[in-house]
Amino acid sequence: SLVEAGMPHHSMVKFPQTFGNYNEPFKKLIQLVDYRKLDHGGDPVLAWMAGNTAARTDPSGNIRPDKSKSADKIDGICALLMGLARAIRSADGVYDDRAEFITI
Q: What is the pTM for the complete model shown?
């Protein structure tokens, strides 16, 4: 649908929702929160979704978001993790050169 709407195919990135894809950005997000380096502007919806999010761990110690203990939404947290994963893996190193805080 996006290609049909004019979005270039090369600008899209697949993100299978696996432990391997979520592990690094989820651990980075936890670190950012722990060190008070994440500024979400007090967004109440993101805070609500964060409260609905748990971490599921695989036998290797990898983590991914999980909502098994909540029937409510965690989509914003998943989107944040996908964006953070993309920033971490960015070929131009933009993530490493960012300011002290990450603002969303």
A: 0.81
